[in-house]
Amino acid sequence: MTLVATDSSTSTLTQDGPRVKDNAQKFVLTLSCVERAGIVQAVTTFLFERGFNIEEHQQFDDGLRETLHLRTAFSGSPEYTPERLQEEFSAIADRFEMKFSFYDQTKQRILVMVSKFGHCLNDLLFRWRGGSLGGDIALIVSNHETHRAMAEAAGLPFIYLPVTPETKSDAERRLLELVDEHNIDLVVLARYMQVLSDDLCRSLEGRAINIHHSFLPGFKGARPYHQAYDRGVKLVGATAHYVTAELDEGPIIEQEVIRVDHSYGPNALSTVGADAEALALSRAVRWHCEHRVLLDQTSTVVFR
């Protein structure tokens, strides 16, 4: 056990040696750049010189694409802000041609969109109320009234936004207004059964996550679990991915797979599928909110 000599307000005994002061601010740095020598040393030296303590460090060297991806969580003086760190780190970033971001502990604000199926919404609400979602749900938007009671029971605003071919553009315009009005960081399509326009997808690029069953591109359209039953599938799964203009083909964040057999009828397959969807979506949302997902062209690097 080590006695740390600090000011009287923060003197502390620790099992592991020096600890950060009680009022320390926590930050996360994420970056991607072309792989070359000296990157990690530059990052760690930058943090050391400012008195920061590295609490978690993960990196991935992609030899095929010759790129490096890095996520470092650190803590230190509350006098620092992400903006100040961004400015002071810019010289290093320019030298290595980095794409980088600093984040503090501010939680991501989430807008959840849902249609008639409520299992993913219910799971997200449960995890949010339990403090394990990683972000804060700010409001729920739906093209049906089905889940108004669920939203209001959670103390959340519920916005009914019906969509028809004639009103689609107006509805999407209103959605973007809600994103701005509520300072939304992430839009989650929790089984929202409307195809977003290309323009809306581009507006939400990198900050909208969708969930769907993993039979795609097979078993498209209505009643996919009935189609799966007819073909005798042995695996049921779900895919959470970023929304892009290419329908259901955005960069994948998480997938969940559950083994089944011939005894599973369409209803049982649907139940198993709902479980897989809820698990994959909640993980994707949490990892995104914790800044663990780095986009890499058409794929992702996920530091779990």
Helices, strands, pairings?
Elements: E1 2-4, E2 12-14, E3 25-34, H1 39-49, E4 53-62, E5 67-76, H2 82-96, E6 99-103, E7 108-114, H3 119-129, E8 135-142, H4 148-153, E9 158-160, H5 168-181, E10 186-189, H6 198-203, E11 208-213, H7 224-231, E12 235-242, E13 252-259, H8 266-289, E14 293-296, E15 299-302
Parallel strand pairs: 7-8, 7-10, 8-9, 10-11
Antiparallel strand pairs: 1-2, 3-5, 3-6, 4-5, 11-12, 12-13, 14-15
Rg of Cα set: 22 Å
Number of strands: 15
Largest sheet: 7 strands, mixed
Question: Strands of the biggest beta sheet: in what spatial order?
Answer: 9-8-7-10-11-12-13
Compressed to H and E, one letter per element, the order equals: EEEHEEHEEHEHEHEHEHEEHEE
**DSSP helix fraction:** 25-40%
List the uncertain runs: 1-18
Average pLDDT across residues? 92
The tally of helices reads 8
The fraction of residues in strands falls at 25-35%
Which assembly state applies to the chains in this document? Answer: single chain
In short:
The chain is of the alpha/beta class and 304 residues long.
Give structural notes:
With 304 residues, the chain is α/β, with parallel strands linked by helices. The chain contains eight helices and 15 strands. A seven-stranded mixed sheet has the order 9-8-7-10-11-12-13. The longest helix has 24 residues, at 266-289. 34% of the residues are buried.
Question: What would the keywords be for this entry?
Answer:
single chain; 304 residues; alpha/beta; 31% helix; 31% strand
